[in-house]
Amino acid sequence: MHSSRQKEDISISYISALCADAGISYDIQRHDDDSTDGIMKKRIFLGDGIFFDSALRIQLKSTSSVSQYKDKGDIITYALKGKNYNDLCTPATTPIILGLFVMPEEEASWVQWSREELLIKGCMYWADFSKMPKSDHKETVTISIPKGHVVNKEFLLDILERQAKEA
């Protein structure tokens, strides 16, 4: 298996594990013409018996190559394909975010297994481009993601709950 496929599969495992831990359903999209790799769904209870079925789409990218991303202290920059960037800027009834999984350069360290734990090394960052203008750049668009925009259980629950309250 090519390392790019490995990175893709590991990023899917990463987001799937976080969703499972948070009680969020994660569905992998087989065809992602609109740059949607997965959909996260959760029923959010708002009180007094009222609930909202919240959903969020995600475009997953993963990298371990410093030629694709740069760590600039408080931000990560990444060369995103122009088509993906423009898809992420497109207004939609179900919001979409980018999940950028940054892995160590050393391939042997990506996944560690023992009888006590399964460890996936790296960190996923998120960005929302829904209010950004589309780009004329066809090849790549260099994006910036604040390093505080970490995809974790709390973030996923918070964004789905905010969506429910705004509906």
The biggest beta sheet, please?
Answer: 5 strands, mixed
Tell me the total number of β-strands. Answer: 10
Q: Which band does the percent of strand residues land in? A: 35-45%
Neighbour order of strands in the largest sheet: 1-2-3-6-9
CA radius of gyration is: 16 Å
The secondary-structure class comes to alpha+beta
- Catalogue the unreliable spans: none
Q: How many helical stretches?
A: 3
The end-to-end span amounts to 43 Å
Give an overview in words.
The chain has 3 helices and 10 strands; from the N terminus they run αβββββαβββββα. The chain is an alpha+beta fold. The strands form 3 sheets. It has a 5-stranded mixed β-sheet with strand order 1-2-3-6-9. Helix 1 (3-22) crosses helix 3 (153-166). The chain is globular, with a radius of gyration of 16 Å.
In short:
By secondary structure, the chain is of the alpha+beta class. It has helices at about 5-20, 80-90, 155-165; strands at about 25-30, 40-45, 50-65, 70, 75-80, 95-100, 110-115, 120, 125, 140-145.
